[in-house]
Amino acid sequence: MLGWETSKIPALASDGTNLYMAWRNVTDNRISWSVPAGETWLAPRVLLDRRTDNGPALSASTTGNLVMTWVSANGDPHIWWSQYRDGRGETQQAFSDRRANTGLRVDLA
Question: What is the pTM assigned to this prediction?
């Protein structure tokens, strides 16, 4: 299926109501995500402003908001994060004091 291809490990998380999946697109290193609708998944949504050389990580915060982290792409070692709250994704932010090897995948616990 077009738009579902990845060469990295996808991320799955629940906010207590919905299940979410995010992954790195194999063709352009952008991050896409989707949610299930009944017995299938909705069409992937591409996050045009987010790129990674590895897979993103997803988790629910203590307030039930979905949080995504990822290491940037193209040799940029910044670790980025954003929240999905009230049905919309918030602006991505870089951790100003944290860096990682772009070949590594970040994780949330």
Answer: 0.84
